[in-house]
Design brief:
CATH topology of the largest domain: Aspartate Aminotransferase, domain 2
Helix content: 40-55%
Largest sheet: 7 strands, mixed
Number of domains: 2
Structural class: alpha/beta
CATH superfamily of the largest domain: Type I PLP-dependent aspartate aminotransferase-like (Major domain)
Bound molecules: pyridoxal-5'-phosphate
Strand content: 5-15%
Radius of gyration: 21 Å
CATH architecture of the largest domain: 3-Layer(aba) Sandwich
Number of helices: 14
CATH class of the largest domain: Alpha Beta
Length: about 400
C-alpha cells in the first residue's frame, strides 16, 4: 500500500528554516566552509543555576508524570513573572505549561478553530503560524507589513483584515523573522481597533520579550489595554531568553475556559512537559536575569555589525530591529539581476541559493515567512563567523549586475 498523507497534512509546508539548515549541512559535509545564518536559537549556553536545578530534580526523583499542564511550583513562578514583569494578574488556573512555545500556540488553535475560521497575523510572519492554522482546519490570513513601516502593521491594515470569521489575531513582538518590536503607543493604536471587534481573540507571542535593544521597552497587549485581558492569551517561553531551546518549556496565561480546553488537548496528546525541564524553568523564572545584560550586549554588537554590512551592499536594505536576533534584508533591487557566477535572480529563493552556493552563507528566503523579496539573517552566531559572513555578502553584492 502506498503511503498517503491526510488532507490536513497535505495542506502544510515543511519548515523552510530546517530545509536551509539541511542544505547547509550537506555542503559542509562535502567540505565547503559554510557559515550558517539560519539559526533560530541563541549560541549561548543555558545558565548554570538552571542546569543545577534540573540535576537536583533528577536526584530527588522528580522524574514521573506531573499534572498535565504544569507543576504548581512552575505555575506559581509564571504567575509571579507575569505580575512582576508585565503587570498582568493571573491565577494558577489561568496558566498552561506545554513542551515549548510551539505546542502552546498549537494547543490554543486546535482547541478553538472550526473549519473556515480565520486567523490573522502580520507578514513577514514566523513560519509555523499559517501551517499550524491549516493543520487545525482554519484559514491563515496574513497582513503585509513592508519595510516602509519597519515591518509593522498599521491600525488601518488591521481594521481591513478583520472579518466576521476572524477568530484570532496572532501578534508577535519582537518578531521572528524581522526583529520588529512594537512600542507601547503602537500597540495601543492596534488595541483601539481590536476593542471594536469583540469576536476577535488575541494571541500574543512574546518569546523574544527579553532580547531587546537600546531604549526599546517590551509591552504586551493585555498590559497595554486591560479591556482586552478577557480575550487575550499571553504566550511566552524560556527557550530564547534563557537559551533553553532543547528543554522544551512554553507557557501561557489567559482565560480559564481556554486554558482548560488546552489542558484537555494535552491530556489526550502530549501529556505534561518534561518534569525535569519544568523544575529547570522554575529556577529560570524565579532566578536572576542579570546574565541577559552581557548576552544582549553581544547580540547588539553583532546586530550593528551585520546592519553595517547590509548597508554596504547595494540593493539591500534593513531597518534596525528592536529585538530578537534576526535581521530581515529587503532585496527587491536584486530581483532580475545576475550574480558574479552568472545566476539570474528571479526570486528570494534564488537569492538564498546563490548566497549558499556562491558565497557559502546560509540565510532563509523571505518566501518562507510570507515576506518576499527578502531574506532572514540570524546573528545568533560568533563574531568571527559574522565578520566573515559580512565580507562574503559584500563580495557577492559587488558582483551583482
Ligand atoms: N514563537 C516564535 C516567534 C519563535 O521564533 C519560536 C521559535 O523559534 C517559537 C515561538 C517556539 O519556541 P519553542 O522552541 O519554545 O517551541
Amino acid at each position: 500500500m502506498s503511503f498517503k498523507q491526510s488532507d490536513a497534512l497535505a495542506r502544510v509546508q515543511p519548515s523552510a528554516t530546517l530545509a536551509v539548515t539541511q542544505k547547509a549541512r550537506e555542503l559542509r559535509d562535502k567540505g565547503v566552509d559554510v557559515i550558517s545564518l539560519g539559526a533560530g536559537e541563541p549560541d549561548f549556553d543555558t545558565p548554570d543555576h538552571i542546569k543545577q536545578a534540573a540535576i537536583e530534580a533528577i536526584a530527588a526523583g522528580k522524574t514521573k508524570y506531573t499534572p498535565v499542564d504544569g507543576i504548581p511550583e512552575l505555575k506559581q513562578a509564571i504567575v509571579d513573572k507575569f505580575e512582576r514583569e508585565n503587570g498582568l494578574e493571573y491565577t494558577a488556573s489561568q496558566i498552561s505549561v506545554a513542551p515549548g512555545g510551539k505546542p502552546i500556540i498549537y494547543n490554543a488553535l486546535v482547541a478553538t478553530l472550526n473549519p473556515g475560521d480565520e486567523v490573522i497575523f502580520p507578514a513577514p510572519y514566523w513560519v509555523s503560524y499559517p501551517e499550524m492554522v491549516r493543520l487545525c482546519g482554519g484559514e491563515p490570513k496574513s497582513i503585509r507589513a513592508g519595510i516602509e513601516t519597519g515591518f509593522k502593521i498599521t491600525p488601518e491594515q488591521l481594521e481591513d483584515a478583520i472579518t466576521p470569521r476572524t477568530k484570532w489575531l496572532i501578534f508577535n513582538s519582537p518578531s521572528n523573522p524581522t526583529g520588529a518590536g512594537y512600542s507601547r503607543p503602537e500597540i495601543k493604536a492596534l488595541t483601539e481597533v481590536l476593542l471594536s471587534h469583540p469576536h476577535v481573540m488575541i494571541m500574543t507571542d512574546d518569546m523574544y520579550e527579553h532580547i531587546v535593544y537600546g531604549d526599546f521597552t517590551f509591552s504586551t497587549v493585555a498590559q497595554v489595554e486591560p479591556a482586552l485581558y478577557e480575550r487575550t492569551l499571553t504566550t511566552n517561553g524560556v527557550s530564547k531568553a534563557f537559551s533553553m531551546t532543547g528543554w522544551r518549556i512554553g507557557y501561557a496565561g489567559g482565560p480559564k475556559a481556554l486554558i482548560s480546553a488546552m489542558r484537555k488537548v494535552m491530556s489526550q496528546t502530549t501529556s505534561n512537559a518534561c518534569s525535569i525541564s519544568q523544575w529547570a524553568a522554575v529556577a529560570a523564572l524565579n532566578g536572576p536575569l542579570d546574565f541577559l545584560k552581557e548576552r544582549n550586549a553581544a547580540f547588539l554588537r553583532r546586530r550593528d555589525r551585520m546592519l553595517g554590512d547590509i548597508a554596504a551592499c547595494a540593493g539591500l536594505s534593513a531597518p534596525a530591529p528592536e529585538g530578537a536576533f534576526y535581521i530581515f534584508a529587503e532585496c527587491s533591487a536584486w530581483i532580475g539581476k545576475t550574480t558574479g557566477a552568472g545566476t539570474r535572480l528571479e526570486t528570494d529563493v534564488d537569492v538564498c541559493n546563490a548566497l549558499l552556493e556562491e558565497a557559502a552563507v546560509a540565510a532563509v528566503p523571505g518566501a518562507a515567512f510570507g515576506g518576499s523579496p527578502g531574506f532572514r539573517i540570524s546573528y545568533a552566531t560568533s563574531d568571527e563567523a559574522l565578520l566573515e559572513a559580512g565580507k562574503r555578502l559584500r563580495k557577492m553584492a559587488d558582483a551583482i549586475t
